[in-house]
Amino acid sequence: MAKSASANISIRMDADLKAAAEELFDELGMSISTAFNIFVKQALREGRIPFTISRGVPNHETIAALQEAEKISKDRNVKGYRDVDEMFEDILG
C-alpha cells in the first residue's frame, strides 16, 4: 500500500485531559498524534470502536458479586470483623 499524504486534524479536548494523555503517551514512547493514529487504524481494522463504551452499568458478573455480598452481609451465621487486624489474627491464629 502506498503511503498517502498526511492531513491535519484538529480536536478540542480539555486541557488537563490533554496534558495527562501527553504524559502517558510520552511514557509509552509516542506522541498524542501517534496514539490517535493507532486508535484510528485499530478502529478501521475492527470496523468498530476498539473498546467497549458503556454507561458504567455493572456487567452480569459484577451484579452477581454485589448480590452475593449483600446476601453475605445479612447472614447472621457469617463471622464478621471490626477491622483487618482482627481478621488476620483470627485467620493466622
Question: Secondary structure elements and their pairing?
Answer:
Blueprint: H1 15-27, H2 32-46, H3 60-74, H4 84-92
Explain what the structure shows.
- By secondary structure, the protein is mainly α.
- It has a domain at 60-92.
- The chain is 56% helix and 0% strand.
- The chain contains 4 helices and no strands.
- The protein has helices at residues 15-27, 32-46, 60-74, 84-92.
- The chain is elongated.
- The mean pLDDT is 92.
Helix content: 55-70%
Poorly predicted regions: none
Distance between the termini: 67 Å
What percent of residues are in strands? Answer: under 5%
- Cα-based radius of gyration, to the nearest Å: 24 Å
Give the topology string: H per helix, E per strand.
HHHH
- Helix segment tally: 4
- Gross morphology is elongated
Count every beta strand, where a strand is a DSSP E run of 2 or more residues: 0
> Largest sheet, if any?
none
Mean pLDDT: 92
State the secondary-structure class.
Answer: mainly alpha
